[in-house]
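G.,

No rush on this.
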Amino acid sequence: MKYLAYLAFLVFVQHAISDPTTLSTSTTSTTSTTTKPHATDCELSDSSKHEQKLLERLSQLKGKKFTWEDKEHKYFFSVCSKAENASLPNEAFIQVDKESNGKKQWVIGRLDDVDLEGTNEFVRLMYKNGDSYANACNKTERNAVIYLTCDSSKINPEFVMIEENNNRLDECAYIFQLKTKDICLKSNQTTTTAPTTKPATLTTSSTKAPDSTKAPESTSTSGTNSNSTSTLPSEKKSKLGVLSIILIALVALLAVYFIMGTLYMRFVNQATGWEQIPNFGFWNAIGEGSADLCNMICRCGNRRTEIHTYENINDHVSDDENLLNM
């Protein structure tokens, strides 16, 4: 039995030496299954029809690169392509520590797993599979969320950071906003603001170490097509008409006139009753004239005549009483 096993082993070795293709094919097949080329474009995690349409809207921005920085860090972002300062082609969002002169950097989003959501006004782009946190977020992977909002008034895109929410147990993310007209649909060329929905219990942070929480103290935006800065959110100032301003001024002047005049007549001239009103005779004449005009227009002057007639009769009666008393 030992000799038979030895002979079988010799035959197998001789066959392997004479035909080495069997061993080479098996090894190449295993290596091909284990290694996967890095993504060079956005690979959707759930390639639905809706996400495909959103991906088509990003075609005008594909390959464009943007930067944002504060005192401690600088961020490099690219739309569905390799970011600036990235070492591998699938690294689409990079965070660089300024104090280390670029020696320390972290990938906060890759092209291998991308989520797209959106409406007619904005597209939410999420890069996943970033480098893991050292201490924060339960040592989970970093993620980058970019809200690309439609703003037809922007000639150059504006890229800003909203916040970093790293006080969770998982799904922590760096949240940014990119205002641009390139994301607008043809039927939606109106200016829109940033999305109002935000993850709950978020805290802003951009710190010396990427695992601590601290709000960014300075903001500056730059990109391949942008050299301007912006603040969030944009506000529209309401303007009053000329007539409204004139009416408000007249009401204010009349209020000051009556208040100050009444105080003067009461405490300086010791006036009482209706006489406390400043220029009471003038305002009384205006009131009587308005009443007479109203009677003439609406009641043809009948009621006013009757009142005057009654007053004349009362005057005659009072004269008769005086004669009787004499």
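When you get to it, here's the other one too:
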Amino acid sequence: MADQSEQNTFGDDFLMFLAGGCTVLGGVVGLWLALAYGSQEEILRQFVNDYVVDRLIDYLVWSAPLIGMLLGSAVAIIVAMAWKFGWRACKWLTRRFAATPAVPGRKRPATPSPLRDNLVDGNKVVAHLDAVLDKGLRLDVCVAYPSVEGLGRLAQWIDGMDPNGRARLLVGSMPRNWTPLHPSARAAGHFMAKHLDYDKQAIPVLERLAGHQEAERLELCVRLAVPQLHAKLYAWIDAQGREGALIGSSNLTKAGLNDQGELNVVVGGDDVQLHAHAWFEARWNEQAAYPADFSDALSALHESSSM
């Protein structure tokens, strides 16, 4: 339907411009005749009388309807062009200067937008999470895919949280074409190394996260099951004890948190936030969610680099 509408619009525009072009061309030809023979009025008058007026009179039965049709077409073209471009101008002015969208029944929002999309500097996902997790008490993250940069940001969040603050990370999507023969905690560690493409640059970040795990400030679970879990959820308790969550499309990656256009909604203090926390607990306690150690991921990464 959309393609057909676009084709119809293109056809209308083409016909309008064709008709307008013919009108302009006729005007240009007439202007050229006037300028070329304007100083020779008698010659022009004789030419018009002999070759135009006489022919029209001789064939009046055919020429009169033809002249009427041409005049009618010219008027129709002028009216149609005025309507088409006038209507477009009115719509543009309405969009440009209207205080609210011209949608029946839709009201202007009374509260600040809870959406975070990374499209403008003041609406970055990472900036929002940085703010709510400063001295925060709790962080639960469920993502399909973490990157080295995203794990580095997780380590930074934990560093900035309350000394008694705790974080949990649930990774839900297995690497492509990779299935563990015997799901286990150690397999989950190798899963993380595979997820990071055995990148040696991940070693310092994994060492920091392993340190947080050893200090019992971070827990890791890896979901080794099909169907894979493609959800993205960041749930927290901030320094004042307020609970909230960010739900949407942002993975724990530099692109998802900062660079790439995403769409996430921030919820808090309502049933949606409570449902989000309950959902995370249910996924965390699934049989397919294997507790894992970043130290195992480090070992797998070192093994791959020594081969």
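Residues 209 and 249 are 24 Å apart (CA to CA). The radius of gyration is 35 Å.

Enjoy the weekend,
O.
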